[in-house]
Structure formats: C-alpha cells, structure tokens
Specification:
Blueprint (H helix, E strand, L loop, with lengths): L2 E6 L4 H13 L6 E3 L13 E9 L3 E2 L3 H9 L7 E7 L10 H10 L5 E3 L2 E2 L15 E2 L2 E3 L8 H16 L1
Parallel strand pairs: 1-2, 1-3, 3-5, 5-6, 5-9
Antiparallel strand pairs: 3-4, 7-8
Helix pairs in contact: 1-4
Length: 166
Amino acid sequence: MKTGIFYGSATGTTADVARRIARLMNVGDSDVHDVAGTRPDLVGNYDLLILGSSTWGNGELEDDWYDFVAGLQVLDLTGKKIALFGCGDETMSDTFCDAVGILYDRLKDTGATFVGEYPADGYTFERSAASDGATMRGLVLDEVNHPEMTDLRLRAWTDKIKQMAD
C-alpha cells in the first residue's frame, strides 16, 4: 500500500512529527509533502494518506491547510484510507487538537475510509473536535507539555496504522 504523508507546519513541530512518522512507516522523503507547496491532486498517487496539522488560534487548522483541504474535498477519495495526526497544547483545553477534528469533518464525505483512531485516555482537556470522548479521530500529540509521551504514542499509532492498512 503506497503511503503519502501530508502536513502543514508553521513552527516546524508538525513537520518534525511527519518525518518521524515517515521513518516509523518506512515512507521515503519523496512521499512526505508540506501542503504549502503541494497540489491536492497529488493524493491520487497514494492508497494511504496520513494527514497532519497543528491547531492554531481558537481551534483552527494551520493556515497552509485551507486551500489544500478545499482541493481534497472536491476529489473522489473512494478506496483511499486516511489517518490523521495533530499537534496541540493541552492547556488550550477547550480546543485541544481541534485541527484533527476539522480535517475529519471536511473530508468525511469524500469516500475515503478513516483509520487510526487513538484512545483519549492519557490526555487532559475539556473539549476537542478531535474526540468523541472515548477516542480521538487520530493521533494527537502535545509536544509542549508532554514530549516524553510522543515516541511511545507514535510507535503505538504507526503499528496500528500498519495493521489497518493491510
């Protein structure tokens, strides 16, 4: 299954996480894309799309995502699998990693199948568009307050994605 990783990153944190996911998934550098300089139709080259965004402001996508996700919304992604990841700050407890939820909401009608939900336990937040309470719609990371948890969560999530992608 050919995997493409697409991310938006203003400060470099999400870009770093995307590269770490690529290493764990054995995805080459040429298949890791910053959405700021990527055409949405490039996703057609991949079976599994791993999409990542940090959350900004009042629970918004990273700026580079808006045009890219609008382009994805008009595509038929039937047969593709999407796994989401995001970076956030638990102290923003009413919008923690909302970008993951926004990506899910914007892409749920494209025909793609979502994979890679992650347990919500172990996180501290009041509300998140990325969560239904018990699970997160993808992997969420807090590199500000809990960087010590990132490696463990990345390994567990990528192992799960590998199994689901088969």
